């Protein structure tokens, strides 16, 4: 008996969209705004940026790498129970972090446990709306993934407000309670009718814990053997490996702004609240850009669009702390003199203040304000990094074909997870060595730009190889007797 057709709506279908959207708001919002705690951890545990940033790297790395676990749990336990288990783990990770005796304990609680919970709840919510919708799938998926950017936009300022009102330990417990509410949204994933088709692994088999309709006997070992065989074959595919290495380089730098923008803002002389707003702006600009880039990807070459966005993204990260000095140089503003004059104003008489104050306000209000430079950077990063989130799967399918996509994407997640483990600690330890984030941002920005540049020749290589493959066939046709 074949699986029933996707209902493409209905009450429970749209409830699933709402639940998926809120899951992205809560899950991604907590993960991408967690860097706001970095200055608090540094102060409380008296450690450097390298040690503290390892928390974020473990958290994001485990979130990416837990895909196979989430897939297994979703198939065996269903959407609802898998989401509840993941939500409880994420909540426990946050609450245990509130009583952490050392930064090494945070590696387990805020890094491993929280990351595992967030990774487990990610797959079932997307799988559910995929199975509930067919014709409307692109539309509802677009709505759902917008929750990620909106969640970052909401959770970053909310975390800062909570930190100003309460101790960071209480703040973690509150966030743990927010994560726990995702259990309620998980219950909105109503199972579809179960199927008798054993070749299907759709959500109709994930409706409950009953396993009579799951794969039986020797099918699982055989399927696993075929899966690993195809993955091994992909490791010898030049197009996949080039794209995987590119993705690895991108993933080295992708978590850097979410981890270090708040602490970098403090070192630039900004307030903690301004740092949290900067993270929030990444989220909202990223959300808007996903919609725009989604439309552009229907009109332009997706690989070219993807590469160009990555190159710009890397350049802006490399010069992120130099936007304000560049603006001052372009508009011929001496910020040092302006600040010196500003300190002398109170000592001047009222008439002098009337003459000088407008000049200073016109210069220092934006050209000499590092906040303006950071605003330019986070918006550029939010817009251009949206291509990495949105177009990676589309470009991968274009390069390899839909038949290889599932295993290729699973293998690609492994490259992303490993890179996410590595990137933040490197920048953190570079800050401890040099005293600024400039060197780390330049290094990771270069990696992102390189990841885009290395993919530009792909169309030419594919054309050359296709031409080379056709030449022997043409020669054979010419040699055939008439």
Give a short synopsis of this structure.
This protein has helices at residues 11-32, 38-45, 49-65, 67-97, 103-132, 137-165, 168-180, 182-186, 219-234, 238-253, 256-267, 272-296, 302-318, 323-330, 335-344, 350-364, 370-400, 405-434, 438-453, 458-479. The chain has 482 residues and is mainly α. It is globular and about 85 Å long.
Radius of gyration: 25 Å
Which structural class is indicated by helix and strand composition?
mainly alpha
Please give the number of β-strands.
Answer: 0
Question: In percent, how helical is the residue content?
Answer: over 70%
Low-confidence stretches: 196-222, 340-363
Order of helical and strand elements: HHHHHHHHHHHHHHHHHHHH
Described by the principal axes of the CA atoms, the overall outline is globular
User: What is the quaternary state of this protein?
Assistant: single chain
Annotation field: number of helices: 20
**Overall average residue pLDDT:** 79
Distance between the termini: 54 Å
Described by strand count, sense and barrel closure, the largest sheet is: none
Strand content bin: under 5%
């Amino acid at each position: 008996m074949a699986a029933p057709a996707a209902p493409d709506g209905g009450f429970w279908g749209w409830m699933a969209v709402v639940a998926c959207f809120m899951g992205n708001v809560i899950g991604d919002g907590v993960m991408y705004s967690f860097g706001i705690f970095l200055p608090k951890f540094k102060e409380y545990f008296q450690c450097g940026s390298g040690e503290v940033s390892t928390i974020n790297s473990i958290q994001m790395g485990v979130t990416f790498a837990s895909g196979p676990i989430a897939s297994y749990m979703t198939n065996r336990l269903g959407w609802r129970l898998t989401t509840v288990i993941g939500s409880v783990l994420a909540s426990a990770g946050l609450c245990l972090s509130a009583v952490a005796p050392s930064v090494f304990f945070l590696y387990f609680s805020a890094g491993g446990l929280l990351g595992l919970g967030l990774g487990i709840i990610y797959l079932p919510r997307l799988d559910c709306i995929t199975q509930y919708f067919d014709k409307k799938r692109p539309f509802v998926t677009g709505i759902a993934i917008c929750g990620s950017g909106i969640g970052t936009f909401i959770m970053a300022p909310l975390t800062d407000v909570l930190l100003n009102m309460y101790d960071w330990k209480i703040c973690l417990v509150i966030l743990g309670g927010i994560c726990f509410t995702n259990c309620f949204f998980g219950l909105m994933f109503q199972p579809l009718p179960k199927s008798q088709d054993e070749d299907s692994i759709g959500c109709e088999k994930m409706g409950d814990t009953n396993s009579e309709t799951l794969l039986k006997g020797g099918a699982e070992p055989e399927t696993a053997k075929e899966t690993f065989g195809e993955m091994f074959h992909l490791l010898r595919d030049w197009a996949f490996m080039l794209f995987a290495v590119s993705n690895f380089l991108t993933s080295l730098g992708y978590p850097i702004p979410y981890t270090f923008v708040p602490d970098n803002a403090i070192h630039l002389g900004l307030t903690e609240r301004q740092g949290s707003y900067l993270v929030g702006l990444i989220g909202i600009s990223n959300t808007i850009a996903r919609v725009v880039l989604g439309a552009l990807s229907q009109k332009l070459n997706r690989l070219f669009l993807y590469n160009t966005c990555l190159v710009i993204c890397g350049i802006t990260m490399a010069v992120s702390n130099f936007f304000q000095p560049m603006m001052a140089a372009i508009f011929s503003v001496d910020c040092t003199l302006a600040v010196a004059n500003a300190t002398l104003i109170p000592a001047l008489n009222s008439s002098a203040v009337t003459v000088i104050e407008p000049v200073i306000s016109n210069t220092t209000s934006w050209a000499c304000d590092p906040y303006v430079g950071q605003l330019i950077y986070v918006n550029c990063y939010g817009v251009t990094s949206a291509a990495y989130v949105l177009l990676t799967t589309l470009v991968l399918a274009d390069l390899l074909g839909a038949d290889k996509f599932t295993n290729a994407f699973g293998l690609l997640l492994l490259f992303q997870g490993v890179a996410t483990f590595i990137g933040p600690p490197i920048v953190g330890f570079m800050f401890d060595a040099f005293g600024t984030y400039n060197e780390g941002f330049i290094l990771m920005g270069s990696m992102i730009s390189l990841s885009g540049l290395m993919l530009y020749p792909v169309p030419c290589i594919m054309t050359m190889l296709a031409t080379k493959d056709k030449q022997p066939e043409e020669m054979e046709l010419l040699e055939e007797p008439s």
